[in-house]
Amino acid sequence: MDERLEALFSQARSAPEEPDAALMARVLEDALAVQAARPVPAAERAVARRGWGLWAALGGWPAMGGLATAAVAGLWIGVSPTLGVGDAVNTLLAGPADDVISLVDASEGFGFDLYEMALAGEEDAG
Amino acid sequence: MSMALDDSSDLPDEALLTLFADGDRQAARALTLRFTPVVMAHAYRLLGDRAEAEDVTQEAMLRLWRIAPDWRPGEARVRTWLYRVVANLATDRLRQRRRAGAPLDEVAEPVDAAAGPAERLQDKARAGALQAALDALPERQRQAVVLRHIEGLANPEIAAIMEIGTEAVESLTARGKRALGAALAARRDALGYGDD
User: Fold this and answer.
1) What is the ipTM of this complex?
2) Which residues on B lie below 8 Å from A44 (Cβ)?
3) Residue B153 within any structural domain of the chain
4) Measuring CA to CA, how many Å separate A96 from each of A90, A105, A106?
5) Are B81 and B165 part of one and the same domain?
6) Which residues in chain B touch residue A24, judged by CB atoms under 8 angstroms apart?
7) Fewest C-beta in 10 Å: which of A57, B12, B32, B191?
Protein backbone atom coordinates (compact mmCIF):
# COMPACT_ATOMS: atom_id res chain seq x y z
CA MET A 1 0.00 0.00 0.00
CA ASP A 2 2.99 2.31 0.52
CA GLU A 3 3.49 2.75 -3.21
CA ARG A 4 -0.16 3.52 -3.68
CA LEU A 5 0.01 6.00 -0.86
CA GLU A 6 3.03 7.67 -2.40
CA ALA A 7 1.16 7.88 -5.70
CA LEU A 8 -1.73 9.57 -3.93
CA PHE A 9 0.60 12.04 -2.26
CA SER A 10 2.18 12.79 -5.62
CA GLN A 11 -1.22 13.31 -7.19
CA ALA A 12 -2.17 15.65 -4.33
CA ARG A 13 1.06 17.63 -4.79
CA SER A 14 0.39 18.10 -8.48
CA ALA A 15 -3.20 19.23 -7.96
CA PRO A 16 -3.22 21.62 -5.02
CA GLU A 17 -6.42 23.40 -4.09
CA GLU A 18 -5.99 26.78 -5.76
CA PRO A 19 -7.34 30.15 -4.69
CA ASP A 20 -9.80 31.67 -7.11
CA ALA A 21 -9.65 35.24 -8.38
CA ALA A 22 -12.14 36.45 -5.79
CA LEU A 23 -9.97 35.22 -2.91
CA MET A 24 -6.83 36.70 -4.46
CA ALA A 25 -8.64 40.01 -4.83
CA ARG A 26 -9.77 39.93 -1.19
CA VAL A 27 -6.26 39.17 0.02
CA LEU A 28 -4.76 41.98 -2.06
CA GLU A 29 -7.50 44.35 -0.92
CA ASP A 30 -6.57 43.58 2.69
CA ALA A 31 -2.91 44.19 1.90
CA LEU A 32 -3.55 47.59 0.36
CA ALA A 33 -5.92 48.53 3.18
CA VAL A 34 -3.26 47.70 5.78
CA GLN A 35 -0.75 49.78 3.82
CA ALA A 36 -3.21 52.68 3.57
CA ALA A 37 -3.88 52.53 7.30
CA ARG A 38 -0.22 53.32 7.89
CA PRO A 39 -0.04 56.91 6.54
CA VAL A 40 3.70 57.35 6.90
CA PRO A 41 5.88 54.40 5.90
CA ALA A 42 8.66 53.49 8.30
CA ALA A 43 11.47 54.63 6.00
CA GLU A 44 9.95 58.06 5.45
CA ARG A 45 9.24 58.35 9.15
CA ALA A 46 12.92 57.73 9.90
CA VAL A 47 13.95 60.47 7.48
CA ALA A 48 11.36 62.80 8.98
CA ARG A 49 12.63 62.07 12.46
CA ARG A 50 16.17 63.02 11.45
CA GLY A 51 15.02 66.30 9.88
CA TRP A 52 12.64 67.46 12.54
CA GLY A 53 14.40 66.15 15.61
CA LEU A 54 16.35 69.41 16.10
CA TRP A 55 13.20 71.44 15.52
CA ALA A 56 11.35 69.46 18.20
CA ALA A 57 14.33 69.64 20.56
CA LEU A 58 14.30 73.44 20.28
CA GLY A 59 10.68 73.53 21.36
CA GLY A 60 8.86 73.67 18.03
CA TRP A 61 6.76 76.66 16.97
CA PRO A 62 6.25 78.25 20.46
CA ALA A 63 9.97 78.46 21.06
CA MET A 64 10.53 79.69 17.53
CA GLY A 65 8.13 82.62 18.19
CA GLY A 66 10.32 83.93 21.00
CA LEU A 67 13.46 83.31 19.01
CA ALA A 68 12.07 85.28 16.07
CA THR A 69 11.23 88.24 18.31
CA ALA A 70 14.73 88.26 19.76
CA ALA A 71 16.25 88.04 16.29
CA VAL A 72 14.23 91.02 15.00
CA ALA A 73 15.16 93.06 18.08
CA GLY A 74 18.84 92.25 17.60
CA LEU A 75 18.62 93.21 13.94
CA TRP A 76 17.02 96.57 14.87
CA ILE A 77 19.71 97.34 17.42
CA GLY A 78 22.37 96.35 14.92
CA VAL A 79 21.18 98.57 12.07
CA SER A 80 20.54 101.71 14.26
CA PRO A 81 23.66 102.05 16.43
CA THR A 82 23.59 105.92 16.42
CA LEU A 83 20.19 106.26 18.03
CA GLY A 84 19.36 106.61 21.75
CA VAL A 85 22.02 105.21 24.04
CA GLY A 86 24.56 105.43 21.23
CA ASP A 87 24.50 109.29 21.32
CA ALA A 88 25.30 109.50 25.01
CA VAL A 89 28.06 106.93 24.76
CA ASN A 90 29.65 108.76 21.82
CA THR A 91 29.57 112.05 23.71
CA LEU A 92 31.12 110.47 26.78
CA LEU A 93 33.95 108.95 24.82
CA ALA A 94 34.64 111.87 22.49
CA GLY A 95 33.84 115.07 24.45
CA PRO A 96 35.84 117.04 27.11
CA ALA A 97 35.61 115.95 30.74
CA ASP A 98 33.36 118.82 31.94
CA ASP A 99 30.80 117.92 29.32
CA VAL A 100 30.09 114.84 31.42
CA ILE A 101 28.40 117.08 33.99
CA SER A 102 26.23 118.61 31.31
CA LEU A 103 24.81 115.20 30.63
CA VAL A 104 23.11 115.34 34.02
CA ASP A 105 20.34 117.93 34.13
CA ALA A 106 20.49 118.98 37.75
CA SER A 107 17.82 121.59 37.29
CA GLU A 108 15.01 119.07 37.30
CA GLY A 109 16.41 116.35 39.49
CA PHE A 110 17.64 115.42 42.90
CA GLY A 111 15.31 117.94 44.58
CA PHE A 112 17.99 120.67 44.64
CA ASP A 113 15.54 123.33 43.43
CA LEU A 114 13.04 122.54 46.19
CA TYR A 115 15.82 122.62 48.81
CA GLU A 116 17.01 126.03 47.60
CA MET A 117 13.45 127.41 47.55
CA ALA A 118 12.97 126.27 51.13
CA LEU A 119 16.22 127.95 52.24
CA ALA A 120 15.15 131.23 50.53
CA GLY A 121 11.82 131.11 52.30
CA GLU A 122 13.45 130.73 55.72
CA GLU A 123 15.74 133.69 55.00
CA ASP A 124 12.75 135.82 53.94
CA ALA A 125 10.84 134.91 57.09
CA GLY A 126 13.83 135.55 59.32
CA MET B 1 -6.88 32.12 -11.56
CA SER B 2 -7.08 34.87 -14.09
CA MET B 3 -6.08 37.80 -11.93
CA ALA B 4 -4.12 40.36 -13.91
CA LEU B 5 -1.16 40.58 -11.62
CA ASP B 6 2.48 40.38 -12.48
CA ASP B 7 4.58 38.17 -10.24
CA SER B 8 7.81 39.06 -11.99
CA SER B 9 9.61 39.96 -8.81
CA ASP B 10 12.55 37.74 -8.02
CA LEU B 11 13.20 39.42 -4.71
CA PRO B 12 13.56 37.24 -1.63
CA ASP B 13 10.52 36.95 0.62
CA GLU B 14 11.90 39.15 3.37
CA ALA B 15 12.95 41.89 0.98
CA LEU B 16 9.44 41.98 -0.44
CA LEU B 17 8.03 42.11 3.07
CA THR B 18 10.24 45.10 3.88
CA LEU B 19 9.10 46.86 0.71
CA PHE B 20 5.51 46.07 1.60
CA ALA B 21 5.95 47.61 5.04
CA ASP B 22 7.29 50.73 3.35
CA GLY B 23 4.09 51.07 1.35
CA ASP B 24 5.20 49.46 -1.92
CA ARG B 25 2.03 48.33 -3.69
CA GLN B 26 3.90 46.13 -6.17
CA ALA B 27 5.36 44.22 -3.22
CA ALA B 28 1.82 43.70 -1.92
CA ARG B 29 0.87 42.19 -5.25
CA ALA B 30 3.97 40.01 -5.48
CA LEU B 31 3.50 38.66 -1.95
CA THR B 32 -0.18 38.00 -2.61
CA LEU B 33 0.66 35.99 -5.71
CA ARG B 34 3.54 34.18 -4.08
CA PHE B 35 1.94 33.07 -0.85
CA THR B 36 -1.84 32.96 -1.23
CA PRO B 37 -1.74 29.72 -3.29
CA VAL B 38 0.66 28.11 -0.79
CA VAL B 39 -1.51 29.07 2.15
CA MET B 40 -4.73 28.06 0.43
CA ALA B 41 -3.43 24.61 -0.54
CA HIS B 42 -2.19 23.95 2.98
CA ALA B 43 -5.34 25.25 4.65
CA TYR B 44 -7.47 23.04 2.45
CA ARG B 45 -5.37 19.97 3.27
CA LEU B 46 -5.76 20.63 6.98
CA LEU B 47 -9.46 21.49 6.88
CA GLY B 48 -10.88 19.52 3.96
CA ASP B 49 -13.34 22.32 3.32
CA ARG B 50 -12.89 24.96 0.67
CA ALA B 51 -14.94 27.74 2.22
CA GLU B 52 -13.20 27.38 5.55
CA ALA B 53 -9.83 27.14 3.85
CA GLU B 54 -10.53 30.42 2.05
CA ASP B 55 -11.41 32.14 5.32
CA VAL B 56 -8.26 30.83 6.97
CA THR B 57 -6.18 31.90 3.96
CA GLN B 58 -7.47 35.45 4.07
CA GLU B 59 -6.93 35.65 7.83
CA ALA B 60 -3.40 34.20 7.66
CA MET B 61 -2.42 36.65 4.93
CA LEU B 62 -3.96 39.52 6.89
CA ARG B 63 -1.74 38.58 9.81
CA LEU B 64 1.24 38.66 7.50
CA TRP B 65 0.33 42.17 6.31
CA ARG B 66 -0.01 43.34 9.87
CA ILE B 67 3.23 41.87 11.14
CA ALA B 68 5.27 43.10 8.16
CA PRO B 69 6.52 46.33 9.83
CA ASP B 70 7.73 44.34 12.85
CA TRP B 71 9.19 41.42 10.90
CA ARG B 72 12.62 40.54 12.22
CA PRO B 73 14.86 39.38 9.38
CA GLY B 74 16.49 36.01 9.82
CA GLU B 75 14.29 34.92 12.69
CA ALA B 76 11.91 32.78 10.64
CA ARG B 77 11.20 32.11 7.02
CA VAL B 78 8.00 33.73 5.79
CA ARG B 79 6.68 30.42 4.51
CA THR B 80 7.44 28.66 7.80
CA TRP B 81 5.68 31.43 9.70
CA LEU B 82 2.63 31.19 7.45
CA TYR B 83 2.39 27.41 7.81
CA ARG B 84 2.39 27.87 11.57
CA VAL B 85 -0.32 30.53 11.43
CA VAL B 86 -2.44 28.34 9.14
CA ALA B 87 -2.07 25.39 11.50
CA ASN B 88 -3.19 27.48 14.48
CA LEU B 89 -6.15 28.93 12.61
CA ALA B 90 -7.13 25.49 11.31
CA THR B 91 -6.96 24.05 14.82
CA ASP B 92 -9.33 26.78 16.02
CA ARG B 93 -11.70 26.00 13.17
CA LEU B 94 -11.65 22.29 13.89
CA ARG B 95 -12.40 22.93 17.56
CA GLN B 96 -15.33 25.15 16.61
CA ARG B 97 -16.50 22.42 14.28
CA ARG B 98 -16.33 19.82 17.03
CA ARG B 99 -18.18 22.09 19.45
CA ALA B 100 -20.87 22.63 16.84
CA GLY B 101 -21.13 18.86 16.52
CA ALA B 102 -20.57 18.68 12.77
CA PRO B 103 -20.15 15.04 11.74
CA LEU B 104 -16.70 14.46 10.27
CA ASP B 105 -17.98 12.47 7.33
CA GLU B 106 -20.11 15.33 6.09
CA VAL B 107 -17.26 17.78 5.92
CA ALA B 108 -14.65 15.30 4.76
CA GLU B 109 -16.25 14.02 1.59
CA PRO B 110 -15.38 16.21 -1.35
CA VAL B 111 -18.06 17.18 -3.83
CA ASP B 112 -17.50 15.91 -7.34
CA ALA B 113 -19.96 17.67 -9.58
CA ALA B 114 -17.94 17.42 -12.77
CA ALA B 115 -18.59 14.59 -15.18
CA GLY B 116 -15.65 13.30 -17.22
CA PRO B 117 -13.72 10.29 -18.42
CA ALA B 118 -13.67 7.27 -16.14
CA GLU B 119 -9.97 7.67 -15.36
CA ARG B 120 -10.44 11.26 -14.28
CA LEU B 121 -13.33 10.27 -12.10
CA GLN B 122 -11.18 7.63 -10.47
CA ASP B 123 -8.45 10.20 -9.83
CA LYS B 124 -11.00 12.45 -8.22
CA ALA B 125 -12.29 9.57 -6.14
CA ARG B 126 -8.77 8.76 -4.98
CA ALA B 127 -8.00 12.38 -4.20
CA GLY B 128 -11.23 12.56 -2.26
CA ALA B 129 -10.41 9.37 -0.41
CA LEU B 130 -6.99 10.70 0.54
CA GLN B 131 -8.49 13.92 1.85
CA ALA B 132 -11.12 12.00 3.78
CA ALA B 133 -8.44 9.79 5.30
CA LEU B 134 -6.37 12.84 6.19
CA ASP B 135 -9.35 14.49 7.81
CA ALA B 136 -9.83 11.42 9.98
CA LEU B 137 -6.29 11.63 11.39
CA PRO B 138 -5.54 13.34 14.70
CA GLU B 139 -4.66 16.98 13.99
CA ARG B 140 -0.94 16.80 14.70
CA GLN B 141 -0.50 13.64 12.63
CA ARG B 142 -2.41 15.21 9.78
CA GLN B 143 -0.31 18.36 9.92
CA ALA B 144 2.95 16.42 9.98
CA VAL B 145 1.92 14.10 7.13
CA VAL B 146 0.69 16.99 4.96
CA LEU B 147 3.84 19.04 5.54
CA ARG B 148 6.12 16.06 4.89
CA HIS B 149 4.43 14.20 2.07
CA ILE B 150 2.30 16.78 0.27
CA GLU B 151 4.09 20.08 0.89
CA GLY B 152 7.39 18.20 0.63
CA LEU B 153 9.16 19.91 3.52
CA ALA B 154 12.15 18.49 5.33
CA ASN B 155 11.80 17.33 8.91
CA PRO B 156 13.78 20.24 10.48
CA GLU B 157 11.46 22.79 8.86
CA ILE B 158 8.40 20.79 9.93
CA ALA B 159 9.85 20.69 13.45
CA ALA B 160 10.20 24.49 13.37
CA ILE B 161 6.63 24.93 12.13
CA MET B 162 5.16 22.56 14.71
CA GLU B 163 7.57 23.68 17.43
CA ILE B 164 8.61 20.14 18.27
CA GLY B 165 11.75 18.05 17.79
CA THR B 166 12.57 16.20 14.58
CA GLU B 167 12.12 12.84 16.31
CA ALA B 168 8.58 13.82 17.21
CA VAL B 169 8.01 14.77 13.58
CA GLU B 170 9.22 11.36 12.43
CA SER B 171 6.97 9.65 14.93
CA LEU B 172 3.92 11.66 13.90
CA THR B 173 4.47 11.12 10.17
CA ALA B 174 5.08 7.39 10.64
CA ARG B 175 1.89 6.92 12.68
CA GLY B 176 -0.05 9.13 10.29
CA LYS B 177 1.08 7.17 7.26
CA ARG B 178 0.16 3.88 8.88
CA ALA B 179 -3.32 5.17 9.67
CA LEU B 180 -3.74 6.51 6.14
CA GLY B 181 -2.61 3.22 4.66
CA ALA B 182 -5.12 1.33 6.76
CA ALA B 183 -7.96 3.70 5.87
CA LEU B 184 -7.23 3.51 2.17
CA ALA B 185 -6.76 -0.26 2.21
CA ALA B 186 -10.27 -0.54 3.55
CA ARG B 187 -11.54 1.24 0.44
CA ARG B 188 -9.20 -0.30 -2.11
CA ASP B 189 -12.00 -1.82 -4.21
CA ALA B 190 -13.83 1.47 -4.49
CA LEU B 191 -10.59 3.19 -5.45
CA GLY B 192 -9.67 0.74 -8.18
CA TYR B 193 -7.04 -1.09 -6.14
CA GLY B 194 -9.01 -4.31 -6.15
CA ASP B 195 -6.18 -6.38 -7.67
CA ASP B 196 -4.10 -6.22 -4.43
Assistant:
1) 0.82
2) 22
3) yes
4) 12, 17, 19
5) no
6) 1, 3, 5, 32-33, 36
7) A57
